[in-house]
Fold this protein.
Amino acid sequence: MTARYAVFGQPIAHSQSPHIHAAFARQEGIALDYRAIEASPAGFTAALEAFAADGGVGANITAPLKEAAFALCQTFTSRAKLAGSVNTLLRKGDYWHGDTTDGIGLVRDLTERHELDLRGRRVLLLGAGGSARSVAPALLDAGIRELVVVNRTTERADALVDAIGEPGRALSRYWDDLRDLGDFELIVNATSAGRDREAKFELPLSLVNSMTTAVDLNYGDAAIAFLAWARAAQCRNTVDGLGMLVEQAAASFQQWHEVRPQTDAVYAELRTTLAPLAGQD
Ligand code: NDP
């Protein structure tokens, strides 16, 4: 039976993962069967079981299934356990092992592609969903000084910082108090608010200092609103989520095929075709 790989989500037609993994596989000379599989939250367990029965050995998981996939894993990496959600599944015998590569994907994009030194930075994280839960510990591991998490639903920000368990370094605050939080060297938008075409980010200018880099996990149209605010606020650099997309895929690919693909060519191609106008530093 051919080893099969797939990305599960709903909707899934927009997913770039089949394209990215096919490009990595070509580069490494690996024959790959990687498909996109649409699954609703209600139908996901059955879809994943059918996939495993049909030779499925690795899967990426995207919205809205990351937490449901976590519940279907028997073992996890420590970062996935901390995040409580997974974007990468690896078949081990008759069970799934789960990992989350969003956080390391973002850190790799920022530190290697954009050559940002994250050490000592004071960071504001907007959002407390699945990706924020992966990104927060990865930023702390990269040596940031302090992480302030602000989310529309405050309880989710509280739960995120409680899970991290470093009250001196990671804390939650109310969205309404953004004006009183001082300034940050890094502001990360991990919300999906920009997916609403009418969305506007009206964040206080007091969040920005002369060093501030603004990062949106989103790319393309969904990144327009936040990055427009960041430019108007005169952030020093703006970065969208396209590099993170490629780097989190590379980290998944490495787990499955035990080789780390080169990401620059795939990134350059997607930059031209997918998000040509997105903000770059
Ligand atoms: P989730 O659905 O898990 O979380 C969504 C987050 O956005 C929550 O914090 C939610 O707040 C917040 N939110 C939604 N609408 C609004 C709004 N109108 N105003 C303020 N906050 C809002 O999504 P993920 O964490 O998985 O993903 C977040 C974004 O990051 C998505 O758009 C996704 O596409 C992108 N992403 C990009 C990746 C990449 O590789 N570039 C990888 C992963 C994600 P609340 O808790 O109050 O509902």
In short: The pocket of NDP is lined by residues 63, 102, 127-132, 151-153, 156, 190-193, 195, 217-219, 222, 241, 244-245, 248 (CB under 6 Å).
